[in-house]
Amino acid sequence: MLNVVLFGPPGAGKGTQSEILREKYSLVHISTGDVFRMHIKGATELGTLAKSFMDRGELVPDEVTIGMLRAEVEKHHGAAGFIFDGFPRTSAQAAALDELLHSMNTSISGMVALEVNQEELIERLLNRAKTSGRADDADENIIRNRIAVYEKETSPVADYYKSHNKYFGVIGVGDIEKITQRLCDIIDRLK
Ligand code: ADP
Question: Which of 111, 127, 129, 171 could form a disulfide with 161 if both were Cys (CB 3.0 to 4.6 A apart)?
Answer without folding.
Answer: 111
